[in-house]
Every structure is written in C-alpha cells, then in structure tokens.
Amino acid sequence: MGSLFRSEPVCLAQLFLQAGTAYECLSALGERGLVQFRDLNQNVSCFQRKFVGEVKRCEELERILVYLVQEITRADIPLPEGEASPPAPPLKQVLEMQEQLQKLEVELREVTKNKEKLRKNLLELIEYTHMLRVTRTFVRRNVEFEPTYEEFPSLESESLLDYTCMQRLGAKLGFVSGLIQRGKVEAFEKMLWRVCKGYTILSYAELHESLEDPETGEVIKWYVFLISFWGEQIGQKVKKICDCYRCHVYPYPNTAEECKEIQEGLNVRIQDLYTVLYKTEDYLRQVLCKAAESVYSHAIQVRKMKAIYHTLNMCSFDVTNKCLIAEVWCPEADLQELCRALEEGSRESSATVPSFMNTIPTKETPPTLIRTNKFTEGFQNIVDAYGVGSYREVNPALFTIITFPFLFAVMFGDFGHGFVMFLFALLLVLNEDHPRLTQCQEIMRMFFNGRYILLLMGLFSVYTGLIYNDCFSKSVNLFGSGWNVSAMYRASHAAEERGKMALWNDSIVRHSRVLQLDPSVPGVFRGPYPFGIDPIWNLATNRLTFLNSFKMKMSVILGIIHMTFGVILGIFNHLHFRKKFNIYLVSVPELLFMLCIFGYLIFMIVYKWLAYSATTSREAPSILIDFINMFLFPASEASGLYPGQAYIQRVLLAVTALSVPVLFLGKPLFLLWLHHGCGCFGANRNGYTLVRKDSEEEVSLLGNQDIEEGSTQVEDGCREVTCEEFDFGEILMTQAIHSIEYCLSCISNTASYLRLWALSLAHAQLSDVLWAMLMRVGLRVDTTFGVLLLFLLIAAFVVLTILILLVMEGLSAFLHAIRLHWVEFQNKFYIGAGTKFVPFSFNLLSSKFTNDDMA
C-alpha cells in the first residue's frame, strides 16, 4: 500500500505490443491492474476502429449469455457465482466457445418454442372441455324452463341441429360457442343486440375456475357463452364480433353423441399432452442445468475479452501495421511489475519478438493515485466527493480518519448512543464477508460500505459521552463527585466563619426549593472530577448555562486549531512543489492573521481557566468584552486578564494589519519581479506541470528555475511569447480574491464551528425530553399494570431512540461534519482539481449477475 499522505508518483510509459501478443499482454495487465491507458484514437469514430468486429462479437456473446441467464432464472435454477475469476479465454478457444454458445441458444429456443406450443395447445383443450361442460347446462335449462311450440319440437326427441323443425320458417339455425373475459361480457352482449337486431339468443355463465390465457399467460376469470342465430349473414356478424372482443371460439357439436365423442377425445389428448409436456420440461431443465454450470465462467470471460478489445481500440498501429503502440500512466513503483506482465503475455503467445515498454517525459499532469484498503476507502471517498486531489498534493483523508469521527462525536456525544452505534458497526465489520450483506438493498449497502466510519464514529462518541458524562441524558457517577453538600451546613464551620459565608441550616433546607453550593466555602469543592464533567451538574438548575459556556468555548478552540492545521498543511504543498516564496508571502501572513486574532482568543480562554479559581471567579473580566475592546481601543483601560494586556493586543493588531497587504500584494509583486528580471523561462523545462497546467504562477516559476540552474540559452522570440503568457492583472485579481475570501472566511468559519456546540446541545436536549416523556413516566407507575406499561414504554423508548436520536440526529451530525471538513478545513490547502487514476483492471468488472440480466 502506498503513502496516504500524498498521491504516488506516476509516469507516462509507451508500450510496444506485437500484433500477435497484444491480446495476451493486455490480459496479463488486466489481471494485475497496473496502468491506465490513454486513448490515442480520439479523432476516430468508435465504428471505424481496428477491433470493432471483435467488440461486436463479444456483444453477441453477451446477448446469448443474457438469454441463457433469463431462461435459467425463469426455470428457478440457482446461478452459481464462484469466488475465483477465470482468466480471459485464449484466442484459440474463442471460436469454440462462440460455436458452443450459439448451438446451445438454437437448441434452447427450439425446445422452448415447442414447449410453449404444447402448453398453448393444452390450455386450449382445457378451455374446450370447460366450454362443453357448461354449454350442456344451457341445453338442459332450455328444455326444463322454456315452453315448446308447435313449430319447435322437443329437444329430447330431436337433435338440436335438426333443421326440419325450422323449414317452415325458411331459415337455418346456427351456434357459436366459446369463452370471453369477464370484463367484456356486458359490452359484448350489448354489441350483439345492437348489430344483430335481436336475431340472436345469448346464453352465458361464469366459470368457477380461473384459467390461464393461452396468449398472454395471465390467470383470469372467464365466461362461457353460447349464441344461437338464424341465417348465414347474422352468423358472419356474430363471428366478427367475437373476433373483435378476442373471444376464444370453439366448434359446437351437432349431436349429443358427437359431444360425447369429442369429450372423450379431448381427455385422451390432454393426457398425452401432459406426458409430452412433462418430458419436454424435464429435458429443458437438464439442458439449463448443464448450461448453468458454465454460464458464470463464460460471462466473466466474455466481459474480460470485451474489455481487452475496447482497450486495444485505444492503441495505434505503427507504419508497418505489425506493432501496436499504447501510452499508459503507470505508478513508478509498478514499472518492474509492468515489465513482468509484458514478458508473461509474450511467453503465453509464444512470440519470437517480445513486447516492451519505455518511459517518456511529458508536460501533462498525471492522474492522482492513492491506494486504499477497506478501512481507508470510506474516508477517501468522503474527500473525493469534494474533489479528486491534484497530483502530488497533500491528501486530507489521512487526517480525516481521526478528525471526521471526532468532530461527529463532539456533536453526537452520548455514551449510550455511541455504544449502540459502535455495536452495530462492529456487527457489520465482523460479518463483512457474509454474501447477504454485499447483495443487500441500497440503503443497507451504504451502511455496509461505511462500516469502519460508523465504527470510529461510535467509538469517539463513547469517548465524548464520557467527557460530557452523558448516557441516555443521564450522568454516571464513576469516581465520586468533587462537591461536598455537608460542608454547606453551619455546624461544619467555626463561629467566626458563619457570619462571613451564606451557609445552610435546617430551616433553609426545609423551606427552600433551590439550594446553592458555594465553591468558596471551605470543603464544598474538593477538586475537579477525574474524567469529564462532574455528575452533580445533572442535578443543577444552572446546568444548561454551565454546559453552554463550556461547549461554546470548546467549539471555538477546536475550530481554530482545525483551521490552523489546514493552513500548516498548505506549507507542505509549497515545499513539495518548490514554491518557497508561497510560504513567506501566503502561508506565513495567513498564519499571522489567524493566530494574532483567533489564536489570541484561545489564549484568553485558556488563561482565564487557569488564572482564576472559584474564590476569584467573581473578579474575572469578560472575555467577550476584552476581545471587542481589542479592536475599539477604549479611552479608559480597565483591568484586564493580565498585566500589559493592552500593549500586547496593540502589537497583535499591528502584526495583523501588516499581514493583510503582504497577503494581497506580496505574491503578485514577486512574480512580476521574476518576470522582468529573468530571461526566457520555460525553454529548458522538462517533466511535469505539477499543479495547474499553463498557470501564470508556473510560468514565472519556470523562469526562476532556469536561472537557478544557470541556463544561458535563449531562443529568439521567447521573451515575446512569455510576455503574452504572463498577465499581471489576472494574477493580482486572483490573489486579491483569495485574500479577501480568506480574511472573511476566518471570521465566518470560526462562527461556523459553533455548530459543534449547537448540535451537541440539541442532541442532549432531545435525549432529555425523550427520557422525561417515556422512561420517567414508566418508572413512576406502581399500579398492577405498571409492569406491562413499563414494557410498552421501554419498547417505544428504544424505537424512538433509534429513529430520532441515532438515525436522524446521526445523519444531521454526519452532514455537518462533512461540511466542516469540506469548507472550513480543506479550503485552506486542498485544491481538488485532479483526475482519478482508473487502471485497466478486471477487478473493476462486475462479477455478479444484475437484475437487468435476470429480467
């Protein structure tokens, strides 16, 4: 693992790949994930590149594999997902794998098509049997309830379709029978009546069973209908109406004997179809089970092969078209490994001429590479969400590992809540290899990916909770209070002391609702609590006033230290990029401005804590008034915190006032002096542009570097070019904007850190309110049902604690901690204008089947 303090050095290398070994070399590079390829064919369309045919072949194989996965999933066959990732297939096996998959696809499509056809025939035959069974009841009902006329003989003695009874009317009687969906029956009946003008008789009944539609596969309710009509023209209209409403029409038998024969034939055919369909499904399942064994490895191999050809399309050919040339960004620490990968690829392809590489100088800024592990990855993602670091600048993630959970814990300080969060994160860490956690829902996956952040957040919250002495809004007396109540009684003191101090007696204790402890009374305050806040403050009425003062000053101290540390980290950037003038003209004035005002505020707070005791606390001056008077220069100088305070404050203000013009004008004037005092700068410059390409500041620095190196060669016209590149107005405007922003942000950012106090107070008050409304009520109930009520109140307390105090308050503190790091801390030294190093690695390819593949 590389250094987390700043990104690794990256160089530009050129790969010379023989045409016959390029595939194997890129396969070896993809397994290692060493380099990031540059596209040398940006002006060439994707459809006109060399290996577009191979990419299309891979896409065709992906389509076949997606079809196989869908069929396997539809058959409820588990998809094996092995842990080992198979390598990219050799070129000799690609055609064999393609033929195998195409043959399997054709076979599966044919078997599936036959299965669907058999299934459709089976459903139609089942519908036909239900239709015959129900229409038989129509005939019986007509016989039993309808009157018989002379023109219509009885159906019992004559066939239903014996038309001799209709010859006197000169018309032919016909029947149409079938099934229709339940929602279309009413409209179907009205249409028949209006079109056929009453020359039809419609009988229908609902099927008790829900049948599957042969066309769509939906299981719906059906109605069986029987239509009697007179005349061929009416019959044609009836059939068209049935087609319009998508009715399933089946032939109606002419006689009862024919109906019986059809019923028996249908039963035999249904049994045969069941047998054939079962054997077809069994064969299909065997084929799918065999395909499922290799579909995972084939899918991974095809993805790797497609990635290789996509990368090969980024390479260019030499003039002989026998060698591919690629340009890659490679960490300097991995150059030897890169050479070994090329040798391995050449050896696997049995090439006579090996592939090789060489590094080339460049003025382009390399991508930023910061290696992380599962612990540091979450903190690096927080920094990268603000912006990927510029090449080789200081990486804030190293310090965010400590400062982020600590600032979160300052706002979330509660021993109980922090311990619950710590246990939840510890459970995720201990079960991080469980497959269900890696395949969980999106919200749970966010918690899982940030498990180590949650672990440190909970651990630091336990620490700050002990400092605040706050556990579910209650204090814990671990070491015994430093305050002694018995020392306030008159009987504990001599007679001469009783008249000087406000002591208690029995009458005061009985009749006073509030009793005040005086720390100036001997024996009342025996010393500070060993760790954290004394638990007696949990009983005090002025507890909120005391905690507000403590947390407000603590927030200011932490904020100023955090911002000052950010300015100091900027010095490391200037030293690394060899811009020492930025230290003297930018960083030092910024530090003086910060420390002379806000650093002095910290000094006043700490000095007052140390210099004044309980006996002299009433004589202590107000820090706020003294800090305001520092800028107002009052005529009457009151007694301050220490002797000579007014003189020191004037000196600090003078240093602050002098640092502002240096911050505004120092850097632009220095660059202007370099510009007029140097020759042709930048002519002999080799290597990288370290910070921002073609910046005005870099132009001046290049000239200074050439003078230090003693370069004397000046090309004709170089000074004219550099004069065009150097713009003093732009540099002055940029520095002025930066200086104004810094001076104002020192004030606003210091006030912004007061959110540490505000959210800590809000969290403590919410916790106290929740305890008072639920647990205090439950613990005071002493009735017969008090135990049951207490159980319900504890359950409600747990649920509300998790939802409000852990989830909602935790999310609020998390977002505020991110803001403090992005705006107040990183803004002091972090540019974040780089590009992330994205290596050509097969590990970045998904090894899981997505929901789209299974849909």
UniProtKB/TrEMBL annotation:
Cellular component aspect of the GO annotation: plasma membrane; vacuolar proton-transporting V-type ATPase, V0 domain
Q: Where are the transmembrane segments?
A: 406-430, 451-468, 554-572, 584-607, 647-666, 785-808
Looking at the keywords, is Ribonucleoprotein present? no
Task: Specify the protein's topology with respect to the membrane.
Answer: Multi-pass membrane protein
Coiled coil start-end: 94-128
Which InterPro entries does the entry mention?
V-ATPase_116kDa_su, V-type_ATPase_116kDa_su_euka
Principal localisation? membrane
Say which domain of life the source belongs to. Eukaryota
Q: Which GO terms describe its biological process?
A: vacuolar acidification
**Which cell locations does it reside in?**
Membrane
Q: Which UniProt keywords apply?
A: Coiled coil, Hydrogen ion transport, Ion transport, Membrane, Transmembrane, Transmembrane helix, Transport
Instruction: Show the Pfam families listed in the entry.
Output: V_ATPase_I
Which GO molecular function annotation, any one, does this entry have?
ATPase binding
The family assignment reads: Belongs to the V-ATPase 116 kDa subunit family.
State the function annotated in the UniProt record.
Answer: Essential component of the vacuolar proton pump (V-ATPase), a multimeric enzyme that catalyzes the translocation of protons across the membranes. Required for assembly and activity of the V-ATPase.
Can you say what this protein is called?
V-type proton ATPase subunit a
